[in-house]
User: Fold FAD-dependent oxidoreductase from Ligaoa zhengdingensis.
Amino acid sequence: MTKTDLLIVGAGCAGLTAAVYAIRAGHSAIVLEKGMYGGQIALTSEVENYPSIEKISGVELATLIYNQAVKQGADIRFEEVTEARLGAVEKIVVTTSEEYRARAVILANGVERRKLGCPGEAEFTGRGVSYCATCDGAFFRGKDVAVVGGGNTALEDALFLSNLCRKVYLIHRRDQFRGEKVMVDAVLARDNIEILYQHTVEEILGDKVVTSVRAAGLEDGQRTLDVAAVFVAIGLIPVNQLFAEAGLDANGYLAAGEDCNTQLPGVYAAGDTRSKPLRQIITAASDGAVAAVAASNYLNAQ
Assistant:
């Protein structure tokens, strides 16, 4: 059994930022990460929208944040959480290797991107397959790209990319969109957006990078589109079942506002895992700082 002032679940931007702020406030902090540090940043080939850094690879930025947290004194452990009991004053989190007891917990476990599951998707992730148009769209300025999805995110991505790219193919498996009417109308009004209703992606093709996507239509059969990128916008999957006692919204995200407070005293949610309108590196960093300061104030009051 290991005890600490603050336990942080997740070593993405939010969790690592929280660790930096917590340690600078004088608290011990352990960060638990089941996979690779960096979270969604590591899936981004290049980042150009983080303040003060003109251009950097996602992996490099994640490594810089990780190294900063380590140098500040964060104890980062690569273990998967299997159980959490967060309702009492002393919070208990169990992993595949250890049982942890903490006075406060920050949940920064992120989300999983819903995948297409087609051939080529995993192979070209970060090399033309992207799950964030606002992160990566500028790299394909003047080129033809495809967006897959039919909700607000897909519609927003198509509109965003239509301002940068020569042509945007919007591939949707249904015969109508699930997004808001105002968004649908805006997409329909764009001359450089071509909609492929009732189409599914069968395969993403390329060499070192994406060169085309093969889509199948219910009525017109198979079609190959020459594109430089495929932006997948078919939803996010929050993985918060273990933390349900902290309170979830209707979509499974942790129900916490801009103050990052959950319904449990001493338990905070930061980054993509919580209910929020924008999921970006900069907002994850902001959440990490806010949650850590809130946790510090809570700890100091005990």
Notes: The mean pLDDT is 94. The longest strand covers residues 99-107.
